[in-house]
Amino acid sequence: MSLELAAIAANRFGLGARPGDLAAIAGDPRGWLLAQLRPETGLPATLRALPSTAQAAGEFTRWLTSIGLTGKAGKAGEAVALSRDARKPDAMAVTTDGGQPLSVEKSYVRYFWPAYAAGVEARFQTGVASERPFFERLSRFWANHFTVSAAKADIIALTPLFERDVVRAHVCGRFEDMLLASCHHPAMLIYLDNYLSIGPRSFLAGHPGFLPPYLRERMKGLNENLGREILELHTLGVRSGYTQADVTTLSKIITGWSVHGPRDMPPGGPVFHFINAAHEPGAQTLLGRIYEAQGEEQGVSALTDLARHPATARHLATKLARSFIADDPPPAAVDRIAAAFQRSGGDLVQTATALVESPEAWTPRPAKIKPPEDYLLSTVRALGGPPLSGLQLIALLDRMGQRPFWAPGPDGWPDVEDSWIGADAVWKRVEWASTLAGGYAAANIDPARIADAALGPQLGETTRQAIRGADSPAQGLALFLVSAEFQRR
Fold it and tell me: Using 50, 70 and 90 to split pLDDT, how confident is the model at 105?
């Protein structure tokens, strides 16, 4: 029995301990974690209630159509920008059914915000209720690795579904399958513009008249966004030996990887659509290897090889060790995780097992700061509340600097302490803790008992005494929530 190891398992690998968790885990903390490394037999009800990817894929076009902008602003950034562009006063407003003027930006919020808030709430409540918090942490890790962000307005309806349908389905599978699934999902293809990419020698490049006029203006040639991020972020990592020529080649290899429009999509999907007329013909040489296969299979072969590359193993191992162990990943742990990845052919269960079995991951002193969403999650798990709606979560996390599904770029949310401990960010946490604790002031609570249940031996004696000596339960609870022990894991 080890309450100290149980606290590490629940807080460092999971989403925070709930009352009674540490005692239940203490008999076999490592075994508790490893038992969670199995595929889901069914989605949690909160996520199952969200729409399908096929249903959500056409929402942006339907919105454009509803405000009369189809073909005028082919991408969301341009459409939403119309409401802010004083040089286009005739595009400043659309008309609602009731005849009242409504800006394009307000129309966008009214159309998309309820579903976006539902996705935020579903994700959060899944984490709060989860009996497999290590699985949830891994899901969040891989979703951040393969970032798609609603900061690009076209995909706001798709971002919660990407994590559900791409990441969760492969957390306990093979990395190459997750990589391929990410590149087949409309959220990724639209976020990084691959659906607009045309091979320089493709049929459509030579015959642009076959494209509708609004697409002809946008599908002007090769787009390297997805090809670059696959190499730099998703597989090999920076400074791994690939060149700009490799970026261009991979981008050619995945030309034609596109999506069905809402009018031509088969009922119920799939949304992915390979357009051979946009694909760059001929053999391609990537990282010194020739890919003779044509069509979609050429891309599948190239991505599979990238997933199995030794540089990919090291890149992923470094990120896992940084996320779960320390901002400066211990080299021995990175070596161990990378070796497990390569030895198993990218089996993510074996890779996560190597992480759990790394001695460096079990050092008593917490080394990682919780990002805002994990801080809120661990708070709600520790207290058993309060219930938070999607709109409340969006507002809270936006104030703390981590609006859900809204990472600032394709590299995702940062995973090092310096990004989350600025003066303003820390003050926002103090504000949240004080407000929340004030709401519990009239409750019959024992903050010292709550702190012990959440942190066990990780709760320092100085902090424990401060909580016990507080002037009120509310003050004691606030001290616990802002303590260094609870802020870290």
Answer: confident
